[in-house]
Automatic annotation (TrEMBL):
It comes from the Eukaryota. This is Protein Abitram. InterPro entries: Abitram (IPR039169), GCV_H/Fam206 (IPR033753), Single_hybrid_motif (IPR011053). GO terms for biological process: dendrite morphogenesis; regulation of actin filament polymerization; regulation of filopodium assembly. One of its GO terms (cellular component) is dendrite. Gene3D superfamilies: 2.40.50.100. It comes from Rostratula benghalensis. The keyword Repeat does not apply. Keywords: Cell projection, Nucleus. It is found in: Cell projection, Dendrite; Cell projection, Growth cone; Cell projection, Lamellipodium; Nucleus speckle. The gene is Fam206a. One of its GO terms (molecular function) is actin filament binding. Belongs to the ABITRAM family. Pfam families: GCV_H. The keyword Nucleus applies.
């Protein structure tokens, strides 16, 4: 029932040999995901995220900056501080040690959230369609 937020295989940061230069969990002057302090069984103190809540900003060597959003409603359980000192983990091991954050959706919402997710095959079909439509321009 927990959601591990990672970069998708098709994310621009994982394409074309880009190098990640920095990751910043400071969302605004008053909001840092690093200040998220969770305690106890009920996860007291966890920041509540909406689908459009930014988790972090990632900068690459070509000057591009990408804001990574939660994409899911729930409590922020943890952010991966290891990627701050070793940003290459995001590219080398995006689905394991290079995860961005862990989010816990509300129990009553978790079933509807998972039902709305794409299967691996559906995701690959979406990517293929996207690739085909962009190559026609």
């Amino acid at each position: 029932r927990i959601c591990v937020i990672t970069l998708a295989e098709a994310h621009p940061l994982l394409q074309n040999g880009k190098t990640i230069t920095s990751i910043n969990y400071q969302i605004s002057a008053n909001c840092s995901r690093l200040q998220n302090k969770v305690s106890g069984k009920s996860k007291r103190g966890a920041q509540f995220l909406t689908e459009l809540a930014p988790l972090c900003r990632i900068s690459s060597s070509d000057g591009e900056e990408y804001t990574i959003y939660s994409c899911i409603r729930g409590r922020l359980i943890e952010v991966n501080e290891n990627i701050l000192s070793n940003p290459a983990l995001l590219q080398e091991k995006p689905s394991t040690e290079g995860y961005i954050a862990v989010v816990l959706p509300k129990f009553e919402e978790s079933k509807s959230i998972t039902q709305g997710l794409l299967t691996q095959k559906e995701y690959e079909e979406v990517l293929l369609k996207r690739l085909n439509s962009s190559s026609c321009n």
